[in-house]
Specification:
The protein has about 140 residues and is mainly β. The protein is built from no helices and 13 strands. It has strands at about 5-10, 15-20, 30, 35, 45-50, 55-60, 65-70, 70-75, 85-90, 95-100, 105, 115-120, 130-135. It has a six-stranded antiparallel β-barrel. A two-stranded antiparallel sheet has the order 11-12. The two termini are about 15 Å apart.
Length: about 140
């Protein structure tokens, strides 16, 4: 599957039945991108992918732009987002998400509320780098 602009649910190979997103109940203009828990609303785990510059994408969750800060991924309201590259990973339907400075989205473990981090890719490709983008009907 090729990533095209639209709505997606993003999960990880570590825990394919649970999406990542933001907690819509946190009343802050900056929210961490984390492994969702059941009380998250669907809006908190619905991602909008917008294409920019060919292979670079803006990733929005709950109408907030994502970008990195201190090697972690956050969603920012009313602020510009980072452009990410989405690359195919080893498994079918799996992707890695990469920043302009070649830092990859990485989930160190699949426990509830674990925040998505940014890491350099290691030689032995770990499951924590692989994310599934499931297309949703708009």
């Amino acid at each position: 599957m090729t990533i095209t602009p639209g709505l997606y649910r993003i999960t990880t190979r570590l825990r394919p039945d649970t999406p990542i997103g933001v907690d819509p109940l946190i009343l802050s203009a900056i929210k961490p991108v984390v492994v969702a828990i059941p009380r998250f609303s669907p809006e908190g785990t619905t991602w909008r992918v917008l294409e920019e510059d060919g292979q670079l994408y803006l990733l929005l969750v709950h109408t907030a732009n994502t970008r990195s800060e201190e090697n972690k991924v956050y969603a920012y309201y009313s602020e510009p987002g980072e452009r990410w590259k989405i690359d195919d990973s080893p498994g079918p339907g799996e992707y890695s998400t990469v920043s302009r400075d070649n830092m990859f989205w990485y989930l160190p473990r699949a426990a509830d509320l674990t925040q998505v981090e940014l890491m350099t890719m290691c030689f032995n490709h770990e499951e924590g780098y692989d994310f599934n983008f499931e297309r949703l009907v708009e």
